[in-house]
Amino acid sequence: MLETILLFGGVDNERLVSIASAKNLALSFDFDTYLFLDKNYQLYIVEKADLIQHDCDFISDFTIKDNYKHIGDVYNIALNVKKNSIFFLALHGKFGEDGEIQSILEKHNFKFTGSSSKSCTICFNKKLSKKVANDNGIPTPKVISSNSDFTLKEKAIITKPIKGGSSSGINFYSSISDIPNHILDDPNIICEEQIDGREFSCGVIENNCSLTPLIPVEIVCNNHFGYEEKYISQDTKEIVNPDIDIEVKQLIQDFSLKIHKALNCTGYSRSDFIFDGKKLFYLETNSLPGLSKQSILIKELRYNNISMHDFISDQFSKASG
């Protein structure tokens, strides 16, 4: 019998997203152990009741209490966790979606939900995932550099960290001449043409040995879709099964399924797109998308009448197979 462990927390600001995801998971499933990873890479066995009662989602951190058992750092996780453990990964961002925690668990032959370390590494890197999309015939916004032709240089530009999630670190410029040189030349930042249009997100899940693209969700935001708009603002609307042509809706699902396969994702993923009225562009794939009550994937599951308990059970079944 496998011992189920919910691993949450993290080492960067997406730790707050992870806590909200873990809280929702804990409300729906009785895990054997609740394991918190703090920003110093230390692990603590915590109480389920404390996690469920945590409030101010996406704003307040999880508090370590004196009675929690400290079991060492995450790199030595095999010393303090049973060999027959299986992890549900509710981590996001650095050391969650970048393949690092997956690599550690793989090294010690632990089973875990979600994609492999290799797949997560590619998904987390926008340049690598963009290349995979292009290689598979999925359009992406054009990359802009100082060597781009004049017509591209005059376009509005969006800059993003090559690695990262939760729409953090995104900036907008009216043209390439407005971008500071240190940003334009930074190998850790990608500069793309800004596509004006409607933004959509679409999850893919594996259950009963089959892959299923979920119903698309449209993201409607008065401002640019950053961290606050994504998790805190009341002005952002996420419309499940939006009013779009059936052909566009089908294309979003087809591209989501295609990129899930091309990136070798496992269990579940969520991909983001933008439609300019004529063409659908791929933006990125989240290998461990948020699972809080407000999360897009959760809304898609709800629309498809898939309970959280069934979703968690299916993911454990996939990971243990």
Automatic annotation (TrEMBL):
Determine if Cell wall biogenesis/degradation is one of this entry's keywords. Answer: yes
What is the name of this protein?
A: D-alanine--D-alanine ligase
Q: What is its EC number?
A: 6.3.2.4
Q: What is the lineage of its organism?
A: Bacteria, Pseudomonadati, Pseudomonadota, Gammaproteobacteria, Thiotrichales
InterPro entries linked: ATP-grasp, ATP_grasp_subdomain_1, D-Ala_lig_Van_CS, Dala_Dala_lig_C, Dala_Dala_lig_N, PreATP-grasp_dom_sf
Main EC class the enzyme belongs to? ligase
Location comes to: Cytoplasm
Q: Domain ATP-grasp spans what residues?
A: 130-317
Q: Which domain of life is it from?
A: Bacteria
Q: Which GO terms describe its molecular function?
A: ATP binding; D-alanine-D-alanine ligase activity; metal ion binding
Organism of this sequence: Francisella adeliensis
Positions in coiled-coil regions: none
Where is the major localization of this protein? Answer: cytoplasm
Q: Which GO terms describe its cellular component?
A: cytoplasm
**What's this protein's function?**
Cell wall formation.
Question: What is stated as this protein's family in its record?
Answer: Belongs to the D-alanine--D-alanine ligase family.
> Which reaction equation describes what this protein catalyses?
2 D-alanine + ATP = D-alanyl-D-alanine + ADP + phosphate + H(+)
Keywords noted in UniProt: ATP-binding, Cell shape, Cell wall biogenesis/degradation, Cytoplasm, Ligase, Nucleotide-binding, Peptidoglycan synthesis
Q: What cofactors does this protein use? A: Mn(2+); Mg(2+)
An individual GO BP term: peptidoglycan biosynthetic process
* Pfam families in alphabetical order: Dala_Dala_lig_C, Dala_Dala_lig_N
